[in-house]
Design brief:
By secondary structure, this protein is α/β, with parallel strands linked by helices. Strand 11 (212-220), helix 9 (228-236) and strand 12 (241-242) form a beta-alpha-beta unit. It has helices spanning 23-34, 50-59, 72-76, 84-89, 108-118, 135-145, 159-169, 198-201, 228-236, 245-260, 267-274; strands spanning 9-15, 38-44, 62-67, 79-82, 94-98, 101-105, 127-131, 151-156, 175-179, 189-194, 212-220, 241-242. Helix 5 (108-118) packs across helix 6 and helix 5 (108-118) packs across helix 10. The protein has two domains: 9-106, Leucine Dehydrogenase, chain A, domain 1 (Rossmann fold, 3-Layer(aba) Sandwich), CATH 3.40.50.10860; 110-246, Rossmann fold, CATH 3.40.50.720. Bound molecules: 2'-monophosphoadenosine-5'-diphosphate. 2'-monophosphoadenosine-5'-diphosphate (ATR) binds next to helix 6 and helix 8. Residues 132-137, 156-158, 161, 180, 196-198, 201, 203-205 line the site of 2'-monophosphoadenosine-5'-diphosphate.
C-alpha cells in the first residue's frame, strides 16, 4: 500500500480474557491513520505464562506489547527498565522492546488526561471526587494531580486502601481520603471519577448526588455493559456522564506513540468505535 512501511511492526496485547479486546482494532486504525503497517494480535496469557509468551513473541519479531488485566502488575517484574510513572503506579500497560529487554510504561493515566482534555474538562482549581482505590486508581492519581485540581477526594468502601494511596501521592498535590459512606465532606465536588469494579461484579455502588455541585459531571473509567449501572444512576440524578472508551483510545494512542514516535488522533477512532 502506498505510503506504508514494507514490513508491518509486530505488536500484541496480552491478557486474560483478551479475545474481546478492542486494542487490535484500535491499533489497526492508528496504522491506517499514520501510514504505518501494523500487525497487532491478542494473545491469551495466564500471569505465570507471561514471561514465556513475551519471549516467544519477541523471538517472532514482536517489538511492542500492551498488558491488560490481570497482567499489569506482574509485567513490572519482566522489565529491564521502568519509567517513573509506571513504577509509582506499580503497573505497566505498555512494553517496548529494547536491546536489554523490555522497557515498561504506563499510559493509562495520561490516556485519561488526554480524554478529559478532549472533552474540555479542565481540572485546574476544581474539586475532584474519585471513587475506588484499586489498581485502576493507582494509575491515574499522579496524572490527575498534575492537572492542578484544588483537591482530590478519594473515597473507598475500604478506607485504608484510599488512605494508603492518598499518602503515597500526597507530595504531588492536595489529596485526601475517606470512607465511601462518609462522602467528601462539606464542599461538593465538580467532577466524579467512577473507578470501582462494581459494574464488573454486578454489585451496588451507593453514591450521593449531594456530594456534587449542580453543574458537576462524571467520568466512568468503564465502558460498554460494565458502564450501564453507573450511567443509569447518573441519568436518574441529572448528572452528565462520559464513559471510559475515550480513555481506552487515549492510552492506546500514547502506547502507539511510544512504539512508533507518532501520536494518532483519538476522535476519528472513537467515532468509528461508537458507530
Ligand atoms: P481495579 O484494578 O479495577 O481497580 P481492584 O484493584 O480489584 O480493581 O479494585 C476494585 C475497587 O472497586 C476497589 O476500590 C473496591 O473497593 P474495596 O477496596 O473496598 O474492595 C471497589 N468496589 C468494588 N465493588 C464495589 C461496590 N459494590 N461498592 C463500592 N466499591 C466497590
Amino acid at each position: 500500500m502506498r505510503g506504508r512501511t514494507a514490513h508491518p511492526i509486530k505488536l500484541a496485547v496480552f491478557g486474560q480474557p483478551v479475545a474481546h479486546s478492542l486494542s487490535p482494532r484500535i491499533h489497526r486504525m492508528f496504522g491506517e491513520q499514520t501510514g504505518i503497517a501494523v500487525d497487532y494480535k491478542a494473545i491469551e496469557s495466564e500471569p505465570d505464562e507471561l514471561a514465556a509468551r513475551l519471549s516467544a513473541f519477541r523471538e517472532d519479531g514482536g517489538c511492542g506489547a500492551n498488558l491488560t488485566v490481570p497482567l499489569k502488575e506482574i509485567g513490572l517484574r519482566l522489565c529491564s527498565a521502568i519509567e517513573p510513572v509506571a513504577r509509582r503506579a506499580r503497573a505497566v500497560n505498555t512494553l517496548k522492546a529494547a536491546e536489554d529487554g523490555w522497557h515498561g510504561y504506563n499510559t493509562d493515566g495520561a490516556g485519561l488526561v488526554l480524554d478529559l482534555e478532549r472533552l474540555g474538562l479542565d481540572l485546574a482549581g476544581k474539586r475532584v471526587l474519585v471513587v475506588g482505590a484499586g489498581g485502576a486508581v493507582a494509575g491515574i492519581l499522579e496524572p490527575l494531580l498534575d492537572m492542578n485540581p484544588e483537591r482530590i477526594c478519594l473515597l473507598n468502601r475500604t478506607p485504608e486502601r484510599a488512605r494508603r494511596l492518598a499518602d503515597k501521592f500526597a507530595h504531588r498535590g492536595h489529596i485526601e481520603a475517606a470512607a465511601l459512606e462518609d462522602g467528601p465532606g462539606e464542599m461538593p465536588c465538580d467532577l466524579l471519577i467512577q473507578s470501582t469494579s462494581a459494574g464488573h461484579t454486578g454489585t451496588t455502588l451507593t453514591l450521593d448526588r449531594q456530594w456534587l455541585t449542580d453543574e458537576a459531571s462524571a467520568y466512568d473509567l468503564n465502558y460498554g455493559a460494565v458502564h450501564a449501572a453507573f450511567a443509569g444512576w447518573c441519568r436518574d440524578n441529572d448528572l452528565p456522564v462520559h464513559d471510559g472508551l475515550g480513555m481506552l483510545v487515549g492510552q492506546a494512542a500514547l502506547a502507539f506513540e511510544t512504539w512508533t514516535g507518532r501520536r494518532p488522533a483519538i476522535s476519528p477512532v472513537l467515532e468509528k468505535l461508537r458507530a
